[in-house]
From TrEMBL:
The chain crosses the membrane at residues 6-29. Residues 28-97 form the Transcription regulator PadR N-terminal domain. Coiled coil: none annotated. The keyword Ion transport does not apply. Residues 109-197 form the Transcription regulator PadR C-terminal domain. This is Transcriptional regulator, PadR family. InterPro entries: Tscrpt_reg_PadR_C, Tscrpt_reg_PadR_N, WH-like_DNA-bd_sf, WH_DNA-bd_sf. It comes from Aneurinibacillus aneurinilyticus ATCC 12856. PANTHER family: TRANSCRIPTION REGULATOR, PADR-LIKE FAMILY, TRANSCRIPTIONAL REGULATOR YQJI. It comes from the Bacteria. Keywords: Membrane, Transmembrane, Transmembrane helix.
């Protein structure tokens, strides 16, 4: 494709999608920049950003395909229905290139557990400790998964992984970030458990 046609696609795409594209759409395009994927694979890979449902991903993939931002091929499966493998198009790359350098909106974090933690004083210490132990267990599983994936990426790509030109560089950055956040969450939960233990000891001393 000539540079002139690429520029035209870039401009037209930016005008058409500036107001209509959402963050999930850009996330899907970003994933497809790394490699072609099925809708199921994309839903799993999106975990590094946030949890997305199949009911969100598949309709959006259809829209992206209709607008020429992605394309797909049918792949036959033995004993299963054919699956679609999606790839990003030049038009999709142009849109993503235009979007990626823009300032980001303030992050929106919705974590139900944080609401429970805020209102934790309504329950007793044992219940509170159970909730935080469950949180630790959940995040320990996440940390274990994250470390395995990071190690796999490092083995497969070596020092190239830390170069911005590597197509896995962005995923590596996000996995490292998620790992640090998950480890920090575990440390915070242990800190809270320490407070709960100290509070229980003080109550017993008064008795």
């Amino acid at each position: 494709m000539s540079i002139f046609i690429y520029i035209i696609l870039y401009i037209l795409t930016a005008i058409t999608w500036r107001m209509n594209m959402n963050a999930l759409g850009y996330a899907l395009l970003s994933m497809l920049m790394r490699k072609p994927c099925s809708g199921y694979e994309l839903t799993q890979l999106l975990e590094v950003f946030w949890q997305a449902k199949h009911s969100q991903v598949y309709p959006l993939l259809t829209k992206l395909e209709q607008d020429g931002l992605v394309t797909f091929v049918h792949v036959q499966q033995t004993g299963k229905p054919d699956k679609k493998i999606y790839s990003i198009t030049d038009k999709g790359k142009a849109l993503l290139t235009q979007w990626v350098s823009k300032p980001s909106a303030p992050p929106v974090i919705r974590d139900e557990f944080l609401v429970r933690a805020y209102a934790i004083g309504l329950t007793d210490a044992n219940t509170a400790k159970r909730l935080f132990h469950e949180r630790i267990f959940s995040f320990e599983e996440k940390v274990a998964f994250r470390k395995v994936e990071i190690e796999r990426m490092q083995k497969e790509h070596g020092s190239e992984l830390e170069q911005i030109t590597c197509r896995h560089f962005g995923r590596y950055l996000l996995f490292q970030r998620k790992l640090k956040l998950e480890e920090e969450e575990i440390a915070w939960c242990h800190w809270v458990l320490g407070l709960l233990d100290n509070a229980k000891m003080k109550v017993n001393e008064k008795k």
